[in-house]
């Protein structure tokens, strides 16, 4: 690599690290809120991707198992600076909460932090961030009455039958309807993204994903190793989750509480701690691993639970990029994007709105935070600070 190219590559990686780390410290509120933070920082402010490419990446991540917001972050990093960009983006966004939860594992097992005022304020930040993101995305992804109607049905379906499989079903139905309705739709430009990975490497990632899912349980039985058993449990949990971080919690509870690896009280205390820190909910694995096997266990658990997401997004993106520019597939993607808006609104109502806006003062603070983002154009971290302070005062 030429010195000039190397310098530019290092500059891009440093920029990704700084931006993703700041998001890792300030992105409260769960996966839907994280997509709002990403949209504000990566798309609106820095314009690293166009709106359609971001919407397509969100739709793909919603369809794949694993932590959707983390996969979106990895995908943006990869498109910006290759595989190293994806790794750096993931580390910056994830490590702040991993470190916090490893520390919390020893300090907050018996502490009730769920009712702290500043935590409630951060929940209201999530309300403002998600509302702001939904308005911006809906303007671009549901411009006509047909797509608005599709978003409405996706909203109703996911509200009335709240499950991960409902989300997958809604996306599949929306893809079919979009294919039938918009197959003659023509756009002025095709979305183009830089993805410096060959399809061969992507195929290897997909094979590795499936191979580990099959081989780890076999190795667990053959070796009887506690470490292999722990890696298998976390890897399988990360591989089989549709619908975001909240869905992984019951899977992890089934893996570790009945077997006596961790007490139910410690599990619930860790869940409270996870709600208090920014970043992806999958970092709950760092807490569990630390309780079971110290800080080394925390790091291994984190690596194991996120590895499937990394393999899947690297494996799927090159093929996805080709498909989304195929005229026969574009209509299906338009339908999926409309459904994603409905799914985001559904997630906005529950759990974000229903668990945060409990009285008039909550609504007032959320309105102020929303105005900070939408009308005063202030950066999201200022809303995070204002929300935490406002929560303590209220």
TrEMBL record:
Residue spans crossing the bilayer: 83-106, 118-138, 150-181, 201-219, 268-288, 300-320, 332-350, 357-376
Topology relative to the membrane: Multi-pass membrane protein
Protein's name according to its UniProt entry: Chromate efflux transporter
Gene name tied to this protein: chrA
Taxonomy, superkingdom: Bacteria
InterPro entries named in the record: Chr_Tranpt_l_chain, Chromate_transpt
UniProt keyword terms in alphabetical order: Cell membrane, Membrane, Transmembrane, Transmembrane helix
Principal place of residence: membrane
Protein localization: Cell membrane
Family label: Belongs to the chromate ion transporter (CHR) (TC 2.A.51) family.
């Amino acid at each position: 690599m030429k010195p000039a190219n190397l310098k530019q590559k290092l500059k891009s990686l440093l920029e990704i690290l700084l931006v993703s780390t700041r998001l890792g410290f300030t992105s409260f509120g769960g996966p839907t809120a994280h997509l709002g933070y990403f949209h504000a920082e990566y798309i609106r402010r820095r314009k690293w991707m166009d709106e359609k490419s971001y919407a397509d990446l969100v739709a793909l991540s919603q369809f794949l198992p694993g932590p959707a917001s983390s996969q979106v972050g990895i995908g943006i990093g990869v498109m910006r600076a290759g595989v190293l960009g994806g790794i750096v983006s993931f580390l910056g966004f994830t490590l702040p909460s991993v470190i916090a939860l490893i520390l919390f594992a020893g300090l907050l097992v018996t502490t009730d932090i769920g009712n702290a005022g500043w935590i409630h304020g951060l929940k209201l930040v999530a309300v403002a961030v998600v509302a702001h993101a939904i308005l911006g995305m809906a303007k671009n992804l549901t411009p006509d009455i047909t797509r608005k109607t599709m978003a409405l049905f996706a909203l109703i379906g996911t509200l009335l039958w709240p499950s991960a499989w409902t989300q997958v079903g809604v996306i599949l139905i929306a893809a079919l309807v979009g294919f039938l309705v918009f197959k003659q739709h023509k756009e002025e430009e095709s979305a183009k993204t830089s993805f410096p990975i060959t399809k061969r490497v992507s195929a290897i990632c997909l094979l590795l994903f499936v191979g580990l899912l099959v081989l780890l349980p076999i190795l667990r039985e053959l070796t009887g190793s506690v470490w292999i058993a722990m890696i298998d449990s976390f890897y399988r949990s990360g591989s089989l989750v549709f619908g975001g971080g909240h869905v992984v919690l019951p899977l992890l509870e089934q893996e570790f509480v009945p077997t006596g690896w961790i007490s139910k009280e410690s599990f619930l205390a860790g869940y409270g701690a996870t709600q208090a820190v920014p970043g992806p909910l999958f970092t709950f694995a760092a807490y569990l691993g630390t309780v079971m096997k110290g800080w080394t266990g925390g790091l291994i658990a984190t690596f194991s639970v996120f590895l499937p997401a990394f393999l899947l997004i690297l494996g799927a993106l090159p093929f996805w990029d080709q498909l989304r520019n195929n005229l026969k597939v574009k209509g299906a993607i338009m339908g999926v994007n409309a459904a994603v808006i409905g799914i985001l609104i559904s997630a906005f109502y529950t759990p974000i709105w229903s668990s945060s806006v409990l009285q008039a003062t909550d609504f007032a603070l959320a309105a102020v935070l929303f105005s900070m983002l939408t009308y005063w154009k202030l950066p999201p971290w200022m809303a995070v600070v204002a929300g935490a302070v406002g929560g303590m005062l209220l």
